[in-house]
Amino acid sequence: MTLQVSSKPAFTRAEPDARRASLVEACARVLAREGVAGSSVRAIALEAGVSPGLVGHYFPGIDALVAETYAHIEAQVSAAIDAALEAAGSDPRARLEAFVTASFAPPIASGELLATWIAFWSLVRSRSEIARQHDEQYAQFRARLEGLLAECGMPAPQLRRAAIAITALVDGLWLELCLSPQAFSPAEAGAIARQALAALTSSGR
Amino acid sequence: MTLQVSSKPAFTRAEPDARRASLVEACARVLAREGVAGSSVRAIALEAGVSPGLVGHYFPGIDALVAETYAHIEAQVSAAIDAALEAAGSDPRARLEAFVTASFAPPIASGELLATWIAFWSLVRSRSEIARQHDEQYAQFRARLEGLLAECGMPAPQLRRAAIAITALVDGLWLELCLSPQAFSPAEAGAIARQALAALTSSGR
DNA sequence: TTGCTTGTTGGACGTTCGTACAACAAGTGC
DNA sequence: GCACTTGTTGTACGAACGTCCAACAAGCAA
Fold first, then answer.
1. Residue A158's closest chain B neighbor by CA?
2. Of A11, A30, A94, A154, whose Cβ has the fewest other Cβ atoms within 10 Å?
3. Domains of chain B (ranges, CATH numbers)
4. Residue pLDDT, tens place only, A17-50
């Protein structure tokens, strides 16, 4: 006979999707706090409040968890950009500027996100399926930018190179901003990007 | 009585600087081949052909070895750029273009270098002395670019932002080029950078 | 040749890692 | 209530990790 009156349940059984999501979020937090080196299965399980064995039950390895964490954060970034585009109204030029401005504001320009990015990048060269995931997400990001540029009236032949250039500029500014926040401010990064945007979109006309 | 006639010496004693350099180069090779996760003290010692204990004799930890490896590779990159500037002659504009063109040619645009960069970046946020090293090397890189821009006649007030923008653009293109080499070619990256360079340097006049 | 300095070795140590798995219990259908 | 499914636990295991250090030997000075 077992008494279960005054004691809490030993664990709660979660929906598989919800549990996966909580593990992904715990992974992002540990990566942000401890860096790549300190992000072990045990640390992530502790952060998520579950036992170490459960991580292996949902993900074949820590690489897969990092890959899903990257996809999760990329989705958050994408949602933040969508919100910024929405708020910018319908003027194509304003939408394009909102795109780059949002890239240097919270929650995107956060040094904590960088750790997840770096962990993912470190897997790209050695794991082919992760390289494929990176290619897809990069292509998706660039395609949206090409759409914005087209709405601004940029001729189709120029779209590809302009999108590559602006993506690289934003990525480079974002990277430096996260790595050494005192080199320049988010506001300055945005101003630089918008200025470059003006130079790039006018020079080709 | 020991016979040393037909057997090779058990080890050769190297100059401290030479031994440090060989460890640094072995570290770069292991990082390029195995990635951050596979770069242990043992693996690096094996690559350098020395015993594991020797790594600890020269470096207090693997972080310090990675930091010195980063500095070593940055010096190689800097030398490659200097050579490109030298070869470009004395015309300021040609020198500026040689600067960005060299950034996408071997030995700089190599996916193998990326692993060292990523390993270093992963330490920036958690180790303050490594953050300082990054700041210094970034500032140095940008200062040289500002010098080139000044020689091209750019007014002083614009130098800072233009240098930040071009550095970010080159870094972003270089990063994507290393991460997914099939997205665009080194030649296209160079063309994009030179085109952006023209747009940025003419718009401010 | 002899003695000294010190770069170098190689194994021992305690820790932490990822993984596997038997036992347990929460929730569900009957 | 009862049996069944399966999400979850906790631990055990071997491998690999960083670090340490006593012993060894290469090269130099005398």
1. B192
2. A11
3. 81-203 (1.10.357.10)
4. 889 999 999 999 999 999 999 999 999 999 999 9
